[in-house]
Every structure is written in structure tokens, then in C-alpha cells.
Specification:
about 220 residues; alpha/beta; Protocatechuate 3,4-Dioxygenase, subunit A; 2 domains; five-stranded mixed β-sheet; about 25% strand
Length: about 220
């Protein structure tokens, strides 16, 4: 009986400590108890086409390029999400970089611009944004397309104010090539793999013919 009471006391102490920590972090009780449930977003390779230059137009709107008369080819995608740490706390002030190929399957990179493979001049190809106080970020880009050997994807590189870095990629739900993409399927855990796949939906109320998607990111 005494041993049972000791176990009950120990359990109460653990729960009490979690509640106290949740209070300090301004988290609800449930979030405090569930600490550690937020696994980090899977890491992926940087790839060969990380932008060679971040000069010029590198804002969060990749569809319009300063000095270009035409906007980017392809379907406009309004992409947003939230950055969080392993406890589910929003990460403010982080730098989010994205890069992707254009609607023709060509990266804005000297290694992928040879001969006839010239990138779409109306597509910025890479962009930067910073997370706000609630960890939210936004980009206006195009729906990624496939190219030989890869399913449609967008590259991400996140750097927090305390210099933590996460490199990953975002994929599109429903793409048949997802099943054959080696990099995506190198993630053996199905729940972790699923966390990189984003569903898209029409968002005509925001922009005619455009799509929207939400990609939340956890940095462990």
C-alpha cells in the first residue's frame, strides 16, 4: 500500500512539473503533457542547385521579377506555414529560403542553364522570408513541376536566430511520381514522410486560378 502511494506521489510530481513548465512557456496543459510529441521535420539534401547568388530580387514573391515585363509561367501558389520548435512553441525571426525549378523544369542556376535549358526570366527561382512573432511565413511562388528523376518539390533552408539550420523539401499530395522518388522514399517512417507532403487547394478568392498550400515546419 505504501509503495502504491509513493508511485501516485511520483506521478503527481511529474504531472505537476509538466504543468508548471507549460505555464512558463504559455502552453495549454495538454501541450505540456504532450511535450516531445513534436518530432522534427525530416532533413533532406541541399541538392546541386542551391542558389549561387542571393543578389538582386530575392523577396518572398517569386512570380514577379523586378525589371521583367512578364510574370512567371505556371500556376501561382500561395504557400504559407508556421515554424515551431520541438515543444510546439512558435519560432520568430527565422530566415526561410526556398528555391525550385521553373515551369519548364529548369533551375535558376549556372549548372542547369546550358544550351537550350534557359530558365524562365519571369520567375525569380529563389526567395527569402522571415517568420513573424507567431512563427508564420508566406511565399507567392508557382506550383512545382517534375523534371527527369524527381517528383515536384520545393527546397527549404531555415536558419533560426540562434543559428540552428534545417534543410528539407516539400512535396505535393497526389503526385504519382511521389511513389518513385528516391529522396522522398528514403524517409522510412511513413508519418515523417507524410509530414513533407502538402495538399493544394484553389484559392480564387485571393487570386484567380491560383492554389494555396500550408507547410508547417518543426525544428527539433
Amino acid at each position: 500500500m505504501a509503495r502504491k502511494n509513493l508511485k501516485l506521489i511520483d506521478r503527481r510530481r511529474v504531472l505537476g512539473g509538466l504543468v508548471a513548465l507549460g505555464t512558463v512557456l504559455n502552453l495549454p496543459f495538454g501541450a505540456g503533457v504532450a511535450m516531445g510529441a513534436h518530432k522534427g521535420t525530416p532533413r533532406q539534401s541541399l541538392g546541386p542547385f542551391y542558389p549561387s547568388s542571393w543578389s538582386g530580387d530575392i523577396d518572398s514573391d517569386l512570380v514577379l521579377v523586378h525589371g521583367e515585363a512578364a510574370s512567371a509561367l505556371g500556376t501561382v501558389l500561395h504557400l504559407s506555414g508556421q515554424l515551431r520548435n520541438a515543444l510546439g512553441v512558435p519560432i520568430a525571426g527565422a530566415m526561410i529560403e526556398i528555391w525550385q525549378c521553373d515551369a519548364k523544369g529548369v533551375y535558376r542556376h549556372p549548372l542547369d542553364e546550358r544550351g537550350a535549358r534557359q530558365h524562365d526570366g519571369g520567375f525569380q527561382g529563389r526567395g527569402r522570408a522571415f517568420s513573424d512573432q507567431s512563427g508564420q511565413y508566406q511565399f507567392r511562388t508557382i506550383r512545382p513541376v517534375a523534371y527527369p528523376g524527381r517528383t515536384p518539390h520545393i527546397h527549404f533552408r531555415i536558419t533560426t536566430t540562434d543559428r540552428k539550420t534545417l534543410i528539407t523539401q516539400m512535396y505535393i499530395r497526389g503526385e504519382k511520381l511521389n511513389m518513385r522518388d528516391g529522396l522522398l522514399n528514403s524517409i522510412r517512417n511513413p508519418h515523417q514522410r507524410e509530414s513533407l507532403i502538402v495538399g493544394l487547394a484553389p484559392v480564387d478568392r485571393l487570386e484567380q486560378g491560383a492554389l494555396s498550400g500550408r507547410f508547417d515546419i518543426t525544428i527539433a
